[in-house]
Amino acid sequence: MDIINNKLSMLKSINKQQQQQQQLLRGNPSRICTFCKKREPWNAQPGQKLKRCSRCRARLYCSRACQRSDWKKGHQMACAATTTTTTANKSKDENRTETETERNEKENSYLESLSEEEAMNQLIDAYRLRVEDERIYRGYLRGRYAPQNTDTDTIITTNTDASLQSALRDFQDFLDLAETSPSPSSPSPPPPSSSSSSPSSSTASASSPSSSSESKTQLDETEQSRKNETKSSVLPSWWTPQKRADCEWRALQSGFWSSLCAPVEKDAIVERYRDSMMPMKLRVLAEAVYGYNVMDQPR
């Protein structure tokens, strides 16, 4: 029996070697010269590898002679058509991107295109990720990590611990900034001019018609700047005090994924949103609110 088993194993090894040799002779089936149908060898040396057409990158050739022959045979027109189609697709993508950018600029903010629930979730997650980034990269402790003090200006239910109270207060400051921060796509409003003066000068200006008209013009400009700032806020147009209260309520619910009750990591955000770019989007959103990035560099 041992002799028979040995012979069978020898036959199997011989068959395997023969199959490998035949495969080497046949070459790589996925890389074939377009013109002469010659296959690229397995483990091909640099001089044996097939070359692609430099324009369309779609056809393979084993030599320049095959490429010239195929070019004369009709690839010239096909290659030009392929190149034109690729260029047209790129232009279409660029135009689509520009159109989307223009549309986003016309809207109040990035959050405008999201549903109310999703916009609130991303606001909460942008804040949560910023807290973790500042703790990790700068050693700055805020929100749930802030040192606790006895002064509490926010009354929450007795079941809420001190770290969650601190996180809520810091998140409320975040929303305060968001309500006054202009969106990245719009210019910042001009700073208000100083109007401090002595009582006598203010009396004189009140009695002067030209000063009165100038003051009215300044008030109109200030009001217009305030309106423009509200229109281009980081927050969407549907944001109201009631919506803010809803957002703060959501942030305190441990049953929601986007909650201040737990910290968050970059990998968890990618997994949650199924978007590898979401951490960057949330960081940009937080930068738009705070006016600087996590390394304290202004926008």
Which short descriptors sum up this protein?
Znf_MYND; metal-binding; mainly alpha; 9 helices; zinc; two-stranded antiparallel ribbon; elongated; 299 residues
CA-CA gap between termini? 81 Å
How much is the radius of gyration in Å?
34 Å
By DSSP (H or I, 4+ residues per run), the number of helices equals 9
Widest beta sheet: strand line-up: 1-2
The SSE order reads: HEEEEHHHHHHHH
User: Average pLDDT across residues?
Assistant: 74
Strand content: under 5%
Helix content: 55-70%
Contiguous uncertain segments of 5+ residues: 103-107, 154-159, 184-209, 223-231
Number of strands: 4
Report the principal-axis shape. Answer: elongated
Main beta sheet, described? 2 strands, antiparallel
Indicate the structural class. Answer: mainly alpha
Q: Nutshell version of this structure?
A:
Helix 3 (116-137) packs across helix 9 (278-290). 58% of the residues lie in helices and 4% in strands. By secondary structure, the protein is mostly helical.
Secondary-structure topology with pairs:
Layout: H1 2-26, E1 28-32, E2 39-40, E3 51-52, E4 60-61, H2 64-106, H3 116-137, H4 162-180, H5 199-207, H6 209-231, H7 241-251, H8 266-273, H9 278-290
Antiparallel strand pairs: 1-2, 3-4
